[in-house]
Specification:
0% strand, mainly alpha, 98 residues, 4 helices
Amino acid sequence: MPAVTVKNLPDDLYQRLKTNAQAHHRSINGELIATLERALCVQRTDPEQQLAQIRALRRELDLPPLDLDAIRAAIESGRPASRHPSVHGRQRSTQGIS
């Protein structure tokens, strides 16, 4: 297996790597490999494909849509829209946000 030497690693970057390694119960080498894998092996998702997956999940959850009035009322009251009284018991609306 190939080995890599990292030269001139800034102290603050090394400390962050060390802190992350401790938090994930890994060696510094293990954390460095995991970090490189996350950075270099990311699969880019097509936005349309991602949107289709989100819509499919929403259909599975069968949540009532939020309308703009419910969202505004939730913002003004400081409560999440899902807890706002006007949302509970409401029939699905074609005017909701989907």
